Amino acid sequence: MEKKTTSSIINTVNDIMSICQQQGITHLYTEDEHYNGRTIQINGNNLINFASCSYLGLDVDERLKEAAIEAIKRYGVQFSSSRSYVACTLYTEWEKLLRTMFNAPLVLSTSVSLGHHAVIPVIVEGGDAIIMDQQVHASVQDAVLKMRSKGVAVSVIRHNRLDELEAKITELIAKHDRIWYMLDGVYSMYGDFAPMKELVVLLEKFKQLHLYVDDAHGMSIQGLHGTGVMLSQVKLHNRMVLATSLNKAFAAGGGAFIFPDEALCQKVKFCGGAMIFSGPHQIPVIGAGIASAKIHLSDEIYQLQNSLKEKLHHCHQLLEFYHLPILSNIDSPISFVGLGLNRVGFNMVKRLMNDGLFVNIGIFPAVPETCTGLRFTITNHHTQSDIEKLVERIAYHFPKALHDEGRTIADVHRAFRKVIEFKTDDSFHEMEATPAPTYTLQHETTIQNVEPELWNSLLGENGIYDWKGLEVLEESFQNNKDQENNWSFHYYIVRDKFNKPLLATFCTVALTKDDMLAPPAISQKIEMERIVNRYYLCSRTLMVGSLITQGKHLYIDRSRPDWKNVMMFFLDALWKEQQNEKADILNLRDFDAADKEMQEFLINQGFLKISLPDDHAITHLDSKKEAYFENLKKKERYYIRNRAIELEKEYEVAIVESPSNTDISHYYQLYKNVARKNIGLNTFHLPKKFFMQLAKDSKWEIITIKSKTDNCLAGVAFSYKTKTKYNSVMIGMDYAYTDQHIYPQILWQLVMRAQQLDLQHLHLGVTSSQNKRKFGADILQQVAFVQVQDNYNMSVINAIANTGEVDEDYKNAQKKITIKRKEVMKKNKVVVQKVKLKNK
Question: What CATH number corresponds to the domain at position 541?
Answer without folding.
Answer: 3.40.630.30
